Give the backbone structure.
Amino acid sequence: MKLKIFSVHASRTDFLELQYKSLSYFLEDDFEYYCIDNFVDSASTEFVFNKCKDLNINYVRFNSYELKGNAFDHAPALNSIKTITTDDCINVVLDFDIFLINKFSIIRYIENFDIAGMYQQRNNFELEYLAPFIVIVNCGKNFTEIDFDSRKDILSDVGGNISHYLKNRKVKLIRHTSALNRKNDVDCFNIDYNPSFGCQILESSFLHYYRGTNWDNSSNIYHKEKTEWLNNALDYSKNKNILNQSYLDKYQNVFNHSFNYWNGSEQPFNSVMNPYLVQ
């Protein structure tokens, strides 16, 4: 079965090779990788273009929208992916800051489901959708019908319009931790970890390094320390399991901070996709 992975790259040129090599090492499926170049500056574009040649992977730059260098570039890029793929394969959208650190099969994972992703909700469950940084759509399930734009009538992130696609679909919600930023979260790893670094684990296999772009303008020394930790973590993962599975079993679920009042709450929920009802 054909598997295509599309990753929209911006902000960090070094993540391209790190992500591709982590997938090549741990993903148990044959796959075709597409680097979507969303960089604004020409130097970064030239770098990733040449890196794609070195790695022998697909390089794509869309010219159908104007790049502004901010989060609003994401939705047009994701929607443009539909022009270069078809529905006769498994299509995967993967953010550039997500890395594979354990053996994993996407083909087995999505089997018997139409789509998989991480649950998001807005406006007290009025809008329920999937976070667009990881979306897996099974073969023949009309990936090209998905709209990755945000809902204009409800304040939402990129991907809010995925809610329309989810109707009458068999959805698999990805288990994940919330942000590993508490003091005790050092126990999630079998290696040293600073909770301020900003990580999240998905399905005991993916490391989401969501604060890697230094959007909070941390010092160069701190940012370098974080980057060194990431590089070491990816290297160590090839020789040993860097995750503490017993800790993950306690905190990894199909809900995130959006559900922080579900457990034990007596308030009714206006929810169609209640993950506690999903078997």
